[in-house]
Amino acid sequence: MITIDEALNALKNNNIKPLFKETIKPLERCGGYYLSKDVIAPVNMPPFSQSAMDGYALSLHDDLSYALIGEVKAGDHHQPILKLGESVRIFTGAPVPETANAVMMQEKVVVAGSKITIEHNLSEGHNIRPMGEQVKTGDLALKKGTKLTPAAIGYLTSLGITEASVYSKPSIALITTGNELIEAGQPLSYGKIYESNSKMLLNALYNLKFYDVTIHKIEDDYIQTKNKLETVILENDLVIATGGISVGDYDFVGKALKELQVEEVFYKVKQKPGKPLFFGKKEDTAIFALPGNPAAALTCFYMYVYVALQKMMNHKQVELPRIQVKSISNFIKKGDRPQFLKAIYNNDTVEILEGQSSSMLQTFALSNALVFIPEDVSKIEKDDLVEVILLPNT
């Protein structure tokens, strides 16, 4: 059995290598991906001089009065020719005529038939977005390694780009084991429970923008377990099994991994919940076997699988953020193992919840954080400073 720090160091120190496989995806499906190549602007943005607001485009002269000779709306492609002292009505986003050199907002203009009077003189370029203000044709639009957020996708789309070269995300297989497990929606007969780990972990992955996920459900059968593990290890970058990793007569995952010659990096971590945690490698595939108890499985996912995923994506920050805040709860720890407690973080304080059993998801459903109690701490009292691990987007 190893410590939490030893397990995290084993994950961080080159046992998980970044994935540098590239793929081209439609831009609307690139959310959360990282660019694998620089993107060069194919057009100017904006592609022409634009009015920044509703108002009047002016060919500046020394007087405050201007002749009104026409109108330009957004989408118009005609080019009125303005002489000195002439103006056109213009709207936000409309092309500013080349012969105009400023725009006065409509609130500062008095209109009298075909004549307008502006409130004060303007400098050239006032309220005009110049062509190429954001980026010019041939310039770097976004550099390699940029995360494609909704704003980034909108920006690239505004340049007429429809697809991007991005780093592939890992393909992931989720395996659940257990004769007692049945699908939600089926009648619940005596001795059976509804299987929840697959949907829980699937949505934890979706929440982190990992969508290439398959789910596989197997019974407590050694041959079936070994064959399924062999297949998914060959076909995926990451395999996550839940259940079957302890030492019971019907826990076959560990035995199957050993027969398949999966390299054991570590097995069993001195922590609560989630002691029977396995991590191994076979060639370039990372394999986790998590405890079957749902709260323990989810804790191990956030503490260890999360790190592996960030390493695969070549991120520098691979662990969830940790902060020190005051507890508003009392808690007495049983045993000598370090413990992760389900908690609610709010306004620089944290509340430790009731129901810390490794099988209980009810309190995890309310949590947005985990409180970490080290091995040498036996209790927490109100107003004690504690270490809080912030969960992602919960």
Radius of gyration: 30 Å
Q: Provide the residue-averaged pLDDT.
A: 94
Q: How many separate helices?
A: 6
CATH class of the largest domain: Alpha Beta
Question: Sheet bearing the most strands, described?
Answer: 6 strands, mixed
Percentage of residues in DSSP E strands: 25-35%
Name the structural class.
alpha+beta
Give the strand line-up of the largest sheet.
7-4-6-5-9-8
| Overall helicity | 10-25%
Number of DSSP E strands: 27
Rough shape?
A: elongated
CATH superfamily of the largest domain: MoaB/Mog-like domain
What is the CATH topology classification name of the largest domain? Answer: Molybdenum Cofactor Biosythetic Enzyme, Chain A
Mind sketching the topology for me?
Layout: H1 4-15, E1 22-26, E2 39-40, E3 50-51, E4 55-58, E5 65-72, E6 86-90, E7 102-105, E8 109-112, E9 115-118, E10 128-129, E11 140-142, H2 150-158, E12 163-167, E13 172-177, E14 181-182, E15 193-194, H3 197-207, E16 213-218, H4 222-235, E17 238-242, H5 253-259, E18 263-267, E19 278-282, E20 285-290, H6 294-312, E21 322-327, E22 331-332, E23 339-346, E24 349-352, E25 369-373, E26 379-380, E27 385-390
Helix pairs in contact: 1-6, 4-5
